[in-house]
Every structure is written in structure tokens, then in C-alpha cells.
Amino acid sequence: MAVPRTLVVATKNPGKAREFAKSFASSGITIHTLLDYPNAQQVNETGTTFEENARLKADHFAHVLQLPVLADDSGLMVDALHGQPGIRSARFAGDHNDAANNAKLLVEMGGMPEEQRGATFHSTLVMAWPDRPADDLVVVGETRGQILTVPRGDNQFGYDPLFFYPPKQKSFAEMSPDEKNEISHRGLALKKLAIVWPDWWQKEEAK
Ligand SMILES: O=P(O)(O)OP(=O)(O)OP(=O)(O)OC[C@H]1O[C@@H](n2cnc3c(O)ncnc32)[C@H](O)[C@@H]1O
Ligand SMILES: [Mg+2]
């Protein structure tokens, strides 16, 4: 079997889950997430880079579930904030609260002119086979955009209402999942993953 019919994505974030589901559906693959494994022991994201945190999540949940697992660690790096919130994106305003995080971002960017509102969205994806961390598959994707002064769009996933993508003249929150996957940090990483993971999977399965 080159690729499986179902794949576990080690995330509790429903926005990510929706995007993964859309992306893998085109290959006939159904996604399960940590919402399907409510009793799985959690892991602290103690890494200092996106890759360390993505590896932590992928390796931990592959071990706990004894299944191959895909994990994503992602975040927003704002030029004028010297790359913050970066790997702290989920907890920028203290706890994991999208509205509070967005409010804090708007305050910190207050009065900043348009030419200084550049930002990069980053995603690192790691696919892990149970108990073989040395074999982890790692891909990254990044998208440049601008931080808006007022939220735009209905998609309430994280910083999407404040992230404007100039080539489409839309915020991420104004895009459908398919439209966002075409150009987003996660979508670009998923395109790279699609090229490499069937061979990787076949090799791991044969070991
Ligand atoms: O760790 P998991 O369970 O996957 O979910 P999480 O929400 O905690 O995810 P991260 O640790 O990777 O933190 C990344 C944060 O960055 C934000 N983020 C990442 N990708 C995003 C996207 O495509 N659109 C909007 N916000 C995004 C969002 O607020 C996330 O909470
Ligand atoms: Mg997290």
C-alpha cells in the first residue's frame, strides 16, 4: 500500500483540521485528529523552534497511539515585532485564545504604516512512524502577507482575519479552505509533503 486510506493528524485545532481534511480528501484519504482520541496523553510544546515543536508532537502521538502521525507547528512572524509572536503564536496573549491574540496583535501594531506591516506565516509539518524519531519526514511552507488594521472575513481561525494576502487582495479569513490551501504556509508545506510521503510510507511499512 503506497499510502493509507486514513491518516492521524496530531492537532486539536479545528481550523487546521479542516484544512488538512480538505487537502487529503483530494487523494481519497480521511483525516482523524486528536479530537477523535480524547484520552490520549498530551505533550507540552517546549521546543525553541517550529521544527522542534512539530517533532515533539509527531513523535509523542505516534508513540502514544502506535500509529503513524502527522503534526503541524505553525505561527505568524511579524517583521515590525522582530518575528514575534512566532512559536508563541498560540499563547501570544497568555492563554490559547484567538480573539485575545488578535486584539494584542492590533495593539502592538497600532499606528504602524502599511509599508511596515509585513509578516510571514510559517508551517512545519512532521510525519512520524511510531518509535522511529530518526526517520521523521520534515517539510516547511511560508507565505508573505500584511497585518491589517481591522479584521476582515468570516473564517475564525487564529490570525486569519488580520492576515492580508496582496496577490489575491483578500485576508485568509475571506478565502475558502481550498483557496487558502493553494497559497497558504500550510498548503505549500502540504504540496511538498504530497511529493515525498508515499515513498517514505512504503519504506517505513516495509521495515
Ligand atoms: O498544537 P495544535 O494542537 O496543532 O494546535 P495549536 O492551535 O496549538 O497550533 P500551534 O501550536 O501550531 O500554534 C500555532 C498558532 O498560530 C496560529 N496559526 C497557525 N496557522 C494559522 C493559520 O493558517 N491561520 C490562522 N492562524 C494560524 C493559530 O493561532 C495557532 O494557535
Ligand atoms: Mg499547539
UniProtKB/TrEMBL annotation:
<feature type="binding site">
    <location>
        <position position="73"/>
    </location>
    <ligand>
        <name>Mg(2+)</name>
    </ligand>
</feature>
<feature type="binding site">
    <location>
        <position position="74"/>
    </location>
    <ligand>
        <name>substrate</name>
    </ligand>
</feature>
<dbReference type="GO" id="GO:0017111">
    <property type="term" value="F:ribonucleoside triphosphate phosphatase activity"/>
</dbReference>
<feature type="binding site">
    <location>
        <begin position="11"/>
        <end position="16"/>
    </location>
    <ligand>
        <name>substrate</name>
    </ligand>
</feature>
<feature type="binding site">
    <location>
        <begin position="185"/>
        <end position="186"/>
    </location>
    <ligand>
        <name>substrate</name>
    </ligand>
</feature>
<dbReference type="GO" id="GO:0046872">
    <property type="term" value="F:metal ion binding"/>
</dbReference>
<protein>
    <recommendedName>
        <fullName>dITP/XTP pyrophosphatase</fullName>
        <ecNumber>3.6.1.66</ecNumber>
    </recommendedName>
</protein>
<keyword id="KW-0479">Metal-binding</keyword>
<dbReference type="InterPro" id="IPR020922">
    <property type="entry name" value="dITP/XTP_pyrophosphatase"/>
</dbReference>
<dbReference type="InterPro" id="IPR002637">
    <property type="entry name" value="RdgB/HAM1"/>
</dbReference>
<dbReference type="GO" id="GO:0009146">
    <property type="term" value="P:purine nucleoside triphosphate catabolic process"/>
</dbReference>
<dbReference type="Pfam" id="PF01725">
    <property type="entry name" value="Ham1p_like"/>
</dbReference>
<dbReference type="GO" id="GO:0000166">
    <property type="term" value="F:nucleotide binding"/>
</dbReference>
<dbReference type="GO" id="GO:0009117">
    <property type="term" value="P:nucleotide metabolic process"/>
</dbReference>
<comment type="similarity">
    <text>Belongs to the HAM1 NTPase family.</text>
</comment>
<comment type="subunit">
    <text>Homodimer.</text>
</comment>
<keyword id="KW-0378">Hydrolase</keyword>
<dbReference type="GO" id="GO:0035870">
    <property type="term" value="F:dITP diphosphatase activity"/>
</dbReference>
<dbReference type="InterPro" id="IPR029001">
    <property type="entry name" value="ITPase-like_fam"/>
</dbReference>
<dbReference type="GO" id="GO:0036222">
    <property type="term" value="F:XTP diphosphatase activity"/>
</dbReference>
<dbReference type="GO" id="GO:0005829">
    <property type="term" value="C:cytosol"/>
</dbReference>
<comment type="function">
    <text>Pyrophosphatase that catalyzes the hydrolysis of nucleoside triphosphates to their monophosphate derivatives, with a high preference for the non-canonical purine nucleotides XTP (xanthosine triphosphate), dITP (deoxyinosine triphosphate) and ITP. Seems to function as a house-cleaning enzyme that removes non-canonical purine nucleotides from the nucleotide pool, thus preventing their incorporation into DNA/RNA and avoiding chromosomal lesions.</text>
</comment>
<feature type="active site" description="Proton acceptor">
    <location>
        <position position="73"/>
    </location>
</feature>
<keyword id="KW-0460">Magnesium</keyword>
<keyword id="KW-0546">Nucleotide metabolism</keyword>
<dbReference type="GO" id="GO:0036220">
    <property type="term" value="F:ITP diphosphatase activity"/>
</dbReference>
<feature type="binding site">
    <location>
        <begin position="157"/>
        <end position="160"/>
    </location>
    <ligand>
        <name>substrate</name>
    </ligand>
</feature>
<keyword id="KW-0547">Nucleotide-binding</keyword>
<feature type="binding site">
    <location>
        <position position="180"/>
    </location>
    <ligand>
        <name>substrate</name>
    </ligand>
</feature>
